[in-house]
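#lab-general

N.A. 3:47 PM
ok so I finally got the sequence cleaned up, no stray characters, all 95 residues accounted for. can someone with queue access submit it? mine expired

B.Y. 3:52 PM
send it over

N.A. 3:53 PM
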Amino acid sequence: MKKRNKFKHVIYMLVALAMLLYALPQLSFQNGPGWVFGFGVVWCIFAFLVIASHLHFIIGVDEEKHKQLEAVRRHKLEQWQGKWNEESARVSQRS
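B.Y. 4:20 PM
back already:
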């Protein structure tokens, strides 16, 4: 399932890159500041954001972060279980 999911993101990233490469010669950046220039800049920024987000997922930065968070959760759970065991031992000693 993970490989298929990554394959999907690779395809989407390539489509966004192809759209950007096709659109760059069509956009006019020579007229100076204006509505056409602003549209071209904003459109390119959004295209780069889409490409960056898919690349971020493909590289697996989220997976590494998820593994680190899971390790922290496991450690906290072990600490809580240790505290519960100590408290239950104290309660059973009092009884």
